[in-house]
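Aim 2 progress update. The chain analyzed this quarter is reproduced below.
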Amino acid sequence: MRQFGGARLVAPAVLLIVAVTGTALGAVVVTSLGLLPLVGQPRLSTDGYTTLAGDLQAATYESLLTAATATLLAAAIGFTIATVVVRAGCGVRLLVGLAAAVMTVPHLVGAAATGLLLSDVGLAQRWSGISAASWPELVGGRWPWATVLELAWKESAFVALVVIASVGRHYADLREVAAVLGAAPRAQWRRVLLPLSAPALASSSLIVFVYSLGTYEVARLLGRAYPEPLPVMAYRLFTDIDVAARPQAAATAVVATGLALLAAVAVLPVVRRLGADR
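Predicted structure tokens:
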């Protein structure tokens, strides 16, 4: 019975979250199928998915490109910061403090600052002396440079803090053992730090991917007008004066949610396996 004690303690909160989230997702799915229209008679239909199939496909590609690139960059930067912190003897508190400070900055503020820095009339363009006509399209261009950089900058601090908290004192002890056995610093990193931090790195990267897939304000401020990422497209359709576009907005939200769930289903078994190997 003791092994189920923790489950009983969190069961009320979990049930409440599942009920609220499940009801909301169910309503969105039903709306996307035309069974919960704002006006008119309910009618089972896939028009919400097929009417804007081309735009929906382009938005899906844009969202996956942005989320995947930002996740890879954030994981690389965050793991590098975590490596420096756990291996350094001095300056550790400063790096951790900087990462924690970055975490407190809202994404909306970060997106606005990134736009002011990287736009064709921004601070970086003026400091570099490059003309506005020759400045690359980092904001609102053909590739979501600014969106990816803002998400990677902000979320790399999250990845670093998660990895540092997960490794803790275990790495210091195991590193001493590896050093006594004659392992070089590179071997210590490859044989000790990397396997020890792999579960935290994978789980935090999953969180970053799901968040980047569903974020609205960063893509809205820094992205191009077309193709839109899924969250921007869903919000635009939902707030359209044509209430007949609500099923299309719901269908867009369903696609974004489905991609996030697929990512979780694919990565969570890997996280469990990495944790068991550790």
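The chain has a mean pLDDT of 86. Residues 145-180 form the longest helix (36 residues). These observations will guide the mutagenesis experiments scheduled for the next reporting period.
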